[in-house]
Amino acid sequence: MAAAAAAEEEKTVKYGIIGVGMMGREHLINLYHLRDHRVSVVCAADPHPPSLDSALHLAHSFNWPLHVFSGHKELLDSGLCDVVIVSSPNMTHYQILIDIIAHPKPHHVLVEKPLCTTVPHCKQVVDAAKKRPDIMVQVGLEYRYMPPVAKLIEIVKAGEVGPIRMVAIREHRFPFLVKVNNWNRFNANSGGTLVEKCCHFFDLMRLFAGANPVRVMASGAMDVNHKDEVYDGKVPDIIDNAYVIVEFDNGSRGMLDLCMFAEGSKNEQEISVVGDIGKGEAFVPEGIVKFGTRVAGRDGVQTIQTVDKRIKYDGLHHGSSFLEHLNFLYAIRNKGTKAPEVDLIDGLVSVAIGVAAQVSIEQGRFVTMEEVLK
Ligand SMILES: NC(=O)c1ccc[n+]([C@@H]2O[C@H](COP(=O)([O-])OP(=O)(O)OC[C@H]3O[C@@H](n4cnc5c(N)ncnc54)[C@H](O)[C@@H]3O)[C@@H](O)[C@H]2O)c1
């Protein structure tokens, strides 16, 4: 009996969460909805007692005992978990990742986007991880898993729109939310708006284009939001709207249209991918994909309502966090035969495009990827 229980225990994948603010607790809830897959969250680290209290409260409501620590090093040294989720503020990802990778006990990692706030930090993490083949790192670029986005990726990868020429992504949404100690109000902490949140869209552009970026041109500013906020005597410096053009090495181009004072929008994200043969579009949160060809014309455009029956919890991101965990868990259980779906290079390049866009705004010129990646 004890041997059977021990074997069952052996099979359970044990998670620790570093940073249990809004997103860390979202991971906790998603993992609870995956409990039939033999997962449990056993520990958490956060220096902010109210965040730990909220995580404890949630875990107890799930009947999950939770060991809590004030720092990530204590969590790693406890040896309690096999997998670590890094969902602390962006500027902390670098040191936490370096410490996880250097730790004698191997821990697989799901790190929230952006991988780090700067290209040199991303590259150091990529290099450090190369020396630890026993550790798998997935980056939380979860927009790939939103059902309408996933359907559009499927259509594009099946060649149904032909070779991709143009990828346009519009995000029109509400301003940045208030975060613990307001870390997201300053470029130095978040990496800047085009790194912090738009790494999602640069990742998608690269995926749709099936190519790597060559150069970036952007225009943007902080025109409306956060102008009357002051923290420790400083006014926020994060832009709230931008246009970004990205050129890819296969000749295709991408464009991001970001507006963060656009609550009066039906959709938060609208994605359009056009190839030689046809065009596909995805709308979030409507969950709709439209697909048509040049030959069939306007009358031939199909509208598909996307649903993914695997999703047991929609959460804050339309079920994408749940699917992200399902994929990550599959990769963990099949390590050696299955690589993470979103790897460190995806994390690095998505940050690098954002950095190039930020530099382009500051300097008013095209910025090459070679410049930011060298
Ligand atoms: N995938 C997505 O779409 C998505 C959405 C929101 C946030 N995020 C990312 O998730 C991360 C967390 O964002 P959030 O919205 O939860 O912020 P938050 O401010 O709500 O929570 C961050 C938590 O991390 C804690 N923290 C600070 N320093 C720490 C450290 N050194 N070690 C451990 N914990 C520490 C804070 O005390 C806080 O409780 C960020 O990287 C953010 O970009 C991703």
UniProtKB/TrEMBL annotation:
Highest taxon, organism lineage: Eukaryota
The Gfo/Idh/MocA-like oxidoreductase N-terminal domain, residue ranges: 14-140
Any one Gene Ontology molecular-function term assigned to this protein's record: nucleotide binding
Protein name listed in UniProt: Gfo/Idh/MocA-like oxidoreductase N-terminal domain-containing protein
A Pfam family assignment: GFO_IDH_MocA
Alphabetized InterPro entries for the sequence: Gfo-Idh-MocA_inositol_DH, Gfo/Idh/MocA-like_OxRdtase_C, Gfo/Idh/MocA-like_OxRdtase_N, NAD(P)-bd_dom_sf
Species name: Beta vulgaris subsp. vulgaris
Domain Gfo/Idh/MocA-like oxidoreductase C-terminal per the UniProt entry, residue ranges: 154-368
